């Protein structure tokens, strides 16, 4: 996906020095500032989710609780250092299929995320709910709208055409491998059954890493975050590094919400984390049973996509997909026909 972000998106904010004292403004170390526009239409984060619980309550009795806990049991047992290494190698191959970003969004009509206690709607709704929410408060930051729109696109990995990976290999919070599992991870008791748990090379605070090594050097559990980051990089994206950081680490709740594993971050990670904190509010609290009218907002997102990227290359992992990948697919229909 080639995403061209107008330089002015960030630079123009420098001129807004007179707003710098406004507490609704994000001030970055580089001197860039991004005002949050407060209008009567501002996004208001709800206190409870659609199931009557507080958000991200993994123990509250609800219709989702058992499914979600079983998801984390499987995720914590199966995501090992070796597994992540294998998945990265598999997806780093340049085999590709092409489709438009919007076509890819529509595929998420078929995906419901089993790890999520707050939402059981098709994921296309989540993409649009989060993008619409962030758009309300940051109307001029189109790179943020786009980041929200694509941040969970990697969940297509659960679909047959993309390898039909089990949910534990695609969704849920992420965590590092190669160092000790932190208690800040939800349902962390299931790590005891992970093959890495008793490996002395991996079960100390730093494990195979050194303090401040930077998250880029850390093996994080495999899923839609890292996959989408890879897709964006391979497609030569020009999204700002904060956008890429959001895509890559938005599920790393133990770090961005609980402050665990922060000793692995470097200075650039710390800078980008500010943006992830901004983004997280819209990612989490926009989850709702009040659905976005897809057809009504489609023209805006199509124009946004056209502005930045007409098509996106995705990396399938199944053997038959790899064979087919020597062709360039212009649309999902072509892909289906070839299958
Ligand atoms: O259940 C959710 C969902 O899978 C999100 O897409 C992910 O980013 C979150 O971290 C996770 O808690
Ligand atoms: Fe996500
Ligand atoms: Fe999300």
Write the layout of secondary structure elements.
Blueprint: H1 8-11, E1 25-27, E2 33-35, H2 65-78, H3 81-91, E3 97-99, H4 101-107, H5 123-137, H6 142-150, E4 176-177, E5 219-220, H7 224-234, H8 241-249, H9 253-256, H10 267-285, H11 294-308, E6 312-314, H12 319-324, H13 332-338
Antiparallel strand pairs: 1-2, 3-6, 4-5
Helix pairs in contact: 5-6, 5-10, 6-8, 7-8, 8-10
The structure holds 1,2,3,4,5,6-hexahydroxy-cyclohexane and fe (ii) ion (2 copies).
1,2,3,4,5,6-hexahydroxy-cyclohexane (INS) binds next to loops.
Brief summary of the model shown:
The chain has helices at residues 8-11, 65-78, 81-91, 101-107, 123-137, 142-150, 224-234, 241-249, 253-256, 267-285, 294-308, 319-324, 332-338, and strands spanning 25-27, 33-35, 97-99, 176-177, 219-220, 312-314. By secondary structure, the protein is mainly α. Strands 1-2 form a two-stranded antiparallel sheet. Strands 3-6 form a two-stranded antiparallel sheet.
Radius of gyration: 20 Å
The ligands found in this model are: 1,2,3,4,5,6-hexahydroxy-cyclohexane, fe (ii) ion
Number of strands: 6
Major sheet: 2 strands, antiparallel
Approximate helicity band = 25-40%
What is the strand content? under 5%
User: In order across it, which strands form the biggest sheet?
Assistant: 1-2
Total number of domains: 1
**Uncertain residue ranges:** 1-23, 316-339
Give the topology string: H per helix, E per strand: HEEHHEHHHEEHHHHHEHH
Shape: globular
Terminal Cα span: 23 Å
Average predicted confidence as pLDDT: 83
- Tally of DSSP helical segments: 13
Backbone structural class = mainly alpha
């Amino acid at each position: 996906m080639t995403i061209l972000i107008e330089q002015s998106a960030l630079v123009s904010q420098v001129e807004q020095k007179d707003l710098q004292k406004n507490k609704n403004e994000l001030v970055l170390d580089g001197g860039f500032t991004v005002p949050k526009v407060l209008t009567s239409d501002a996004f208001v984060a709800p206190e409870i989710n659609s199931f009557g619980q507080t958000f991200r309550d993994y123990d509250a009795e609800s219709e989702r609780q058992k499914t979600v806990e079983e998801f984390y049991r499987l995720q914590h047992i199966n995501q090992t250092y070796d597994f992540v290494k294998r998945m990265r190698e598999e997806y780093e191959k340049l085999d590709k299929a092409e489709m438009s970003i919007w076509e890819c969004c529509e595929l998420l009509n078929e995906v419901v995320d089993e790890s999520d206690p707050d939402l059981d709607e098709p994921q296309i709704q989540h993409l649009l709910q989060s993008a619409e929410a962030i758009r309300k408060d940051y109307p001029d930051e189109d790179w943020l709208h786009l980041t929200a729109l694509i941040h969970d696109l990697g969940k297509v990995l659960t679909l047959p055409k993309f390898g039909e990976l089990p949910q534990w290999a695609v969704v849920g919070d992420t965590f590092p491998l190669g160092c000790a599992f932190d208690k800040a991870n939800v349902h962390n008791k299931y790590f005891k059954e992970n093959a890495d748990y008793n490996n002395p090379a991996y079960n100390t605070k730093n494990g195979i890493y050194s303090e401040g090594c930077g998250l880029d050097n850390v093996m994080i559990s495999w899923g839609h975050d890292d996959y989408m980051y890879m897709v964006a990089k391979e497609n030569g994206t020009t999204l700002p590094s904060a956008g890429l950081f959001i895509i890559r680490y938005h599920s790393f709740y133990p770090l961005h919400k609980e402050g665990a594993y922060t000793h692995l971050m470097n200075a650039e990670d710390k800078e980008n984390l500010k943006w992830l904190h901004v983004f997280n509010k819209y990612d989490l609290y926009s989850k709702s049973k009040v659905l976005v009218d897809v057809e009504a907002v489609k023209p805006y997102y199509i124009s946004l996509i056209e502005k930045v990227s007409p098509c996106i290359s995705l990396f399938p992992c199944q053997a038959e997909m790899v064979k087919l990948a020597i062709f360039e697919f212009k649309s999902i229909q072509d892909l289906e026909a070839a299958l």
